[in-house]
Design goal:
It is a single chain. By secondary structure, the protein is an alpha/beta fold. The chain has 2 domains: 9-132, Response regulator (Rossmann fold, 3-Layer(aba) Sandwich), CATH 3.40.50; 135-265, Reverse transcriptase/Diguanylate cyclase domain (Alpha-Beta Plaits, 2-Layer Sandwich), CATH 3.30.70. Helix content is 45%, strand content 20%. The protein contains 9 helices and 9 strands. It has helices at 17-29, 40-49, 68-76, 95-103, 116-127, 136-153, 172-181, 206-217, 238-265; strands spanning 9-13, 33-37, 56-59, 86-90, 108-111, 157-164, 188-193, 196-202, 224-231. Strands 2-1-3-4-5 form a 5-stranded parallel sheet, with helices on both faces. A 4-stranded antiparallel sheet has the order 7-8-6-9, with helices on both faces. α3 (68-76) links the parallel β3 (56-59) and β4. The longest helix has 28 residues, at 238-265. It is elongated and about 60 Å long.
């Protein structure tokens, strides 16, 4: 796959490692380049040390030492960042906090806990799609046809999203071929982006999809995460099924991150 020419860079500032991991995975799966920071001090260093401006800043309100409002004010005082959009990401949904966020220059306000689709929707609104890697329209076309068949036959259909953790060192097309060799002829393996595969499994429920994942895991190099969505239980159409499966994938990634943090604390 060719490298993107119109990269869009996002900085996520949040003291929760789970939120940083979740936001990074969600947005990188959509083709954005994402950096993270745990504190205002770390965020300021990243802003200062970059040769190019970030296209979007996503920041929590409640941060150690300095809060998100103070960071936004410092950022907006710099001429080059005056017109760069900032989105507040916080569990504090009071009217005064939202008003304050808008007054100091925030363009969006997303409440925790959030869904992947909600985060992506707001990011797209602020800085647009990464069109070169937006293969979801093609996936939707394939799913629409398979859902119509499943509806007529009154059978299940499962969608699996498999995402590689970290930098992929093997061409995704080669991995897709390996996976396809382990599936049925009626199954489809689709390359969503440079580190994500979609498996469309006709006449397959959630339990069957879990069996498929177990079957292909040993064939996949590196660490992978999986999300499962099943028609009609988790989505009546292609959009609903994709959104549910994305949330399932992000939930697995978030749970893994929490397990790692708990292991470090022991």
């Amino acid at each position: 796959m060719e490298e993107r020419e119109n990269k869009k860079n996002i900085l996520v500032v949040d003291d929760s490692v789970l939120i940083r991991l979740m936001a990074k995975n969600i947005l990188e799966a959509e083709g954005y380049d994402v950096e993270t920071a745990a504190t205002v001090e770390e965020a300021i260093l990243k802003v200062r040390n970059r040769k190019e401006l970030f296209d979007l800043i996503i920041v929590d309100i409640n941060l150690p030492n300095q809060n998100g409002f103070e960071f936004i004010q410092k950022l907006k005082s710099q001429a080059e960042y005056k017109n760069i959009p900032v989105m507040i990401l916080s569990g504090n949904a009071t009217a005064p906090s939202i008003t304050q966020a808008i007054q100091i220059g925030a363009a969006e306000y997303l409440i925790k806990p959030f869904k992947a689709a909600e985060l992506v929707k707001r990011v797209v609104k602020l800085i647009g799609y990464i069109k070169e890697e937006d293969h979801y329209p093609k996936l939707k076309e394939l799913l629409k046809k398979e859902i119509n068949r499943a509806r007529r036959s009154n059978v299940n259909l499962s969608l699996v999203l498999a995402q590689w953790e970290g930098k992929i060192r093997v061409e995704i097309s080669k991995i897709a071929d390996q996976v396809k060799d382990k599936l049925r002829d009626i199954d489809t393996v689709f390359e969503v982006d440079k580190n994500t595969l979609a498996l469309i499994l006709p006449v397959t429920g959630a339990d069957g999809a879990a069996v498929v994942i177990k079957k292909i895991k040993s064939e996949l190099p590196g660490k992978w995460h999986f999300g499962i969505g099943t028609y009609p239980d988790n989505g009546k159409d292609e959009d609903g099924l994709i959104n549910f499966t994305k949330e399932s994938l992000m939930k697995e990634i978030s749970n893994l991150g929490q397990e790692r943090e708990e292991a470090k604390e022991k």
